[in-house]
Amino acid sequence: MTGFAEAVTQLRQSLKGETTPELTGADYTRRHDRFEAASPQRSLVAQSIQRELTGLAEKEVGPIDLLSVGCGDGALDEIILEANAGQIRSYCGIDPNPEQIAACRERLSHYPGTSFLHQGMAETIRGAPFSLVYAVHVIYYVGDPGRFIDQLLNVTAPGGLTMVAVAPKSPMNVIAELFWQSQGTDALFSEDVDRLLTEIGLSYEREEIAADMPLSLFKGASADEDVVEFTVQAKLDQLSETARTALINAFETSAIEGADGLSLEHPVDCFWIRR
To answer: How far apart are CA 226 and CA 233, in angstroms?
Structure first.
């Protein structure tokens, strides 16, 4: 078996001339749902947010108001709202995808004080100051990350928290980046956000959350094509056998020994900014 670096080189070469259209619309939503269901990351991020909410409550900063930017279907936010019933005064979810914001509204509208906005990430974020503002796996999709972070801070109340969650350049994302590059898309990772926040001059805490997914989801008889396609953010039905083999080899050579066998690391970094 080749090493990971060699496997990445082979995959890069094999993708030349390949057709790998990006995921959009219903294709994106379905694969996203499958991927999230297969990963423990969402629950781990929810635990991180819950810890900080507990800290805000202990400081008695007043009623808790939440803003979720890029809320998707509200699955993450439902965990937060359910765990803090009676303690959260208001919740606002923002998402540019009309299907996702509709799903979020259907999922969360029975909680008191909820509101939902369908707007693009480039649009100005408005609203009363919020105790906690968070954007999980959203910053990849904005044209100006610095302006986006500034907007989040502008709607965070004094004494409140802003959180941006973004993937580091782990082996899984090194693989994915090759597909993004073939689509003409520039990738952004937590290392870039770290550098950006430092350049802006903001004080922040970087929390590294470890998670992994079974290698069996990516190769072999139990492989899940939706999970694979969401990982690389591309439709792979036109991928040649050579490129497919190179992709599987890259996944395999990046695997680590986990508690339940071979796994792929699926970490996320949360950047916490205290106002």
So the answer is: 10
Residue 143, pLDDT score: 86
Instruction: Please state, in angstroms and rounded to a whole number, the distance separating the CA atoms of residues 219 and 252.
Output: 8
Query: Whole-prediction pTM value?
Result: 0.93
Whether the CB-CB separation of 104 and 116 falls below 8 Å is answered with yes
Which CATH class name applies to 4-274? alpha beta
User: Cβ atoms within 10 A of the Cβ of 261, count?
Assistant: 10
Q: Are 161 and 274 a contacting pair, CB within 8 Å?
A: yes
**Counting beta carbons within 10 angstroms of the beta carbon of residue 38, is it exposed (0 to 12), middle (13 to 18) or buried (19 or more)?**
middle
52-61, 73-82, 222-231, 251-260: least confidently modelled range: 52-61
Q: In angstroms, rounded to a whole number, what is the distance separating the alpha carbons of residues 167 and 36?
A: 14
Residue where the block lists tokens 């269901």: 37
